[in-house]
Structure prediction request, 67 residues.
Amino acid sequence: PIFKAEIEIIPKGAVTVADALDAAASRHAADMIVVGAYGHSRVQEWILGGVTEDFIACSSKFVLLSH
Prediction:
């Protein structure tokens, strides 16, 4: 099979980063989202939130997390 990569710039908006990437994956008919996963301190995660945690909880696609 031939694999094709596409680039899309997603402007900052009213939805979370995980939701924006999930919607972009749907627009491009992607079956999987591959993201790097790394942790921050508990305080930083509590204040800013975490994209990794959002993907685990809410993604409608298969998600491959790599550290």
